[in-house]
Structure formats: structure tokens, C-alpha cells
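Batch manifest, entry 17 of 40.
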Amino acid sequence: MLVALAANLVIAVAKAVGGLLAGSPALLSEAAHSVADSLNEVFLLAALHRSRRPADRRHPFGYGKERFFWSLLAAVGIFVMGGCFSFLQGIEALRNGAEETFGGYVAGLIVLGVALLAEGTSLLRALHQVRRQGGKGGLRDPALRTVVAEDGTAVLGVTLAIIGMALHMITGQVVWEASASLAIGGLLVYVAYRLGRDARDQLIGEAADPELTDRIRNLLRAQPEIDSVEALFTMQMGLDCVMVAARIDLAPGLDSEKVEEISVRIKRSIARTVPEADQVFLDVTDRRTERKRESPAATGERGGA
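Output type: C-alpha cells
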């Protein structure tokens, strides 16, 4: 992430200077894109720092969801600073045109070429980190997922800008460069929407990975003292933090001390098998007692076959 931040800052300055000197809407759109990416990297660094704070009385489940919150802000930044500015640049170029000299074209293309090299290097570094963290599973980290999305979008955006500038230089029609700005804006809005939707789901309270949930369910069902698992709920509280709440029906004839001993053993077994499950809650029920309590004879209601 530090590599991505350094690359974005350098590229943002180069694009902005080149865009102003050349009067290129596509290059200015890419400058806004890089500025948005740089600000977002700061957001994500704050997320990494704040999400590692230990739990306290005010936040007993810890601060793991800080990553999701700052990822949402990063998505908003991409939409506002990158997407909207790119749309404005494209519309302005279509309305008023853009006068560029041959030297401006060449300077702009050189800047974009250097940017493509830097963005590509940053993307490869991010993909390498994803592989180190387990391939596709590494993308569960919202900060790393945002970096990969930003770098991938940056490479595609720079490519669009190069194509737009080259066609403008060849044909003399500004519509090509304006279209490139609009395409960059549309791309950024789409990426912002996807990142924002993922962060929203995680902030609301997204269930853990289905495979992890199935492992916990199978572990509970394998316990000889458990007759059935009535309900199992999971919630992702952070990157490597899952809350588990299960309603289980135990075998009959167990006294209270035995039930407590079994509950402690099951919780330890879950924590040992699934290290992410650091918060485990078990609700022990008795289906036979509940059925008697709900029967017409127990409630005083009339009816029945």
C-alpha cells in the first residue's frame, strides 16, 4: 500500500502539470484519478492502523469494522474526485474543444507512458501480495481489495487516455479525447459502486464465508452430546474476526454442571478449529420442553385432533 501511495503521488503531480501545459482533458481526468487514489491510500492506511486497536468497554467486539468504514469513504472519494471530475472534463471538451500543440501531445503521451509503467508496477506488487495472502481469499481484506481495484482501474484508465490522445493527434477530432475522459469517468463510477457496495454489506453485518460456516456447523453436529443444531449465525466483525452464535439442542439427562462443561469444551473446539471465531455464543435449548410449553395442554388452549 505504501508503494501504491508513493506511485500515485508522483503520477498525480506529473499528470496535472502535463495536463495543464498540454490542455488535455484526458490527461487532466487521469490527474484527478491519481489524486483520488492518493487520498484513498491515506484513508486505507488509517483503516489499517485504527482497526488493530484492541477491544475496550465501549467497543467490546473490537475495531475490526474500521477497515470497512474507511473503505466506504475511499469508494466515495473515487466517485466524487475521480468519476465526476472526469465526466466534467469530457463534457467541457465536447462543448468548447481543446487546442493542443504537437509538443503538448508528445509531452502528454510521455507522461502517460511513464504513468502506465508506474501503475503497472504497483498493480503487480499488489497482485503479488494477494497471492501471498492466499490468492482469491486475500481479497477479503477491503484495504487490499481497494488497492488492487484502484491499480487495475488506473492501468485501464491510462490506456484509455493514451488511445484518446493518440486518436486526437491523428484525426484532429477532440471527440476522441473527450470520449476517453467520459470512459474514464464511467469506469471510476463503476469501480466506486462495486467497492462501496461491498463495504456497505460488511458494515451492515455480512455473514462469514459459507465454507467457514459449514465447518462450524459440521463440528457442532459431530459432538456426541448435541442432538441437533437448531440455528447457526455468523457475522464478519473484521478481517480475521468472526462472531458465532448457535442454538443447539443437547441430549436429555444432562445436569447443569455437565451442560456448562460441554459448552466450554465446544467453544474451545470451535476456536481451535476456526481461529477466526474469537467470539462464540451458545444457546442451549430443549426442543421437548419447548414443544410441551407450546402445546394446547400447557397453554390452556382448546383444540387438537
